[in-house]
């Protein structure tokens, strides 16, 4: 007689959710958790007795029904989603497997941040994650890749920090891996997954090169190639210092009538000097405009005094160069293209030169000293000769690699020629291999 398979057991997360739901229901009814649990147990025993079953059999039957209903709902939702996205094409096994492997994180916006998540955010803020500045909601935020955060959590430094007695950092265990630890950040809204907004859209003229404009994704997933943005700002002593200084400055200005006479006279002269500098700045701006208007007709395209004065550059760069001809956007694009073409041509010439030198060193004369070749009899008397190929390029890291060249003689035997060839170490380091983290 075939026995019925037991229903799927609930996961620890589902058990915790049911316990929280029961606690909330008990609180709503004005009862304690134990009283509500006893009431539910009595009701189940009563219903099981009416159905002619034991309480355990009745609970197993309820679980089987709930599991079947959940499966039917999931299948209906999946069929509806497939009908909306791809009505005529079946889902590929690879896509379904990838969908099952995705880790979806439900973001909880209620309550204060978890102390473990707060400690994790503080610790990650002090690590070298190669963060990149991005624009989120008009504000600058630090963006990082998930793989670097996972690498930091799996490092010995995290193990040492989490093993301290007075820390809230969650410990890394097989049951609680790095992916589960990193989920604490979006759950407490300390870091969220983002993506670039329309990467193929035309860039704004005021856009800073290298900065993405990002948006928060609805599905907070954990994958090594995804990007996250820190919403947590660590308390900075500089901010507190500046705030205290601002309060002291405001208080000092309020007490200006009580200042000594000499100090008040000095402040008056200082303010007049600042006003004079501001006036000179406006006069210079007016003069450079008149100079440009006067030269745009006489010596086009026009001459600017301090052409970078109002550009988005540093203070000292605003006054460099002292003068320059007017350049349109097309002129700047052409100049950038010319520089790029010059760099590419230089790189191609250097590569061709390296290839020519390598080919010249590899080729050798058949009448070399110490080598006698008898092509008619197919005999080769090869004398052992040491040589090395020295690179004439720029000084780079080199290593001497022993190389054996095998030459077959007429009898079929092979002769090894030991050489010492110096070559560059072209193997990329770990840092070099990870430089392409942020590719626009």
From TrEMBL:
The chain crosses the membrane at residues 241-261, 267-291. InterPro entries: Sec62, Sec62_asco. One of its GO terms (biological process) is post-translational protein targeting to membrane, translocation. Residues 70-114, 330-440 are annotated as: Disordered. It is found in: Endoplasmic reticulum membrane. It is a multi-pass membrane protein. It comes from the Eukaryota. Residues 385-401, 431-440 have a biased composition (Acidic residues). Residues 73-103 have a biased composition (Low complexity). One of its GO terms (cellular component) is endoplasmic reticulum membrane. The keyword Transmembrane applies. Keywords: Endoplasmic reticulum, Membrane, Protein transport, Translocation, Transmembrane, Transmembrane helix, Transport. Residues 363-377 have a biased composition (Basic and acidic residues). Its main location: endoplasmic reticulum. The keyword Membrane applies. Belongs to the SEC62 family. This is Translocation protein SEC62. It comes from Gomphillus americanus.
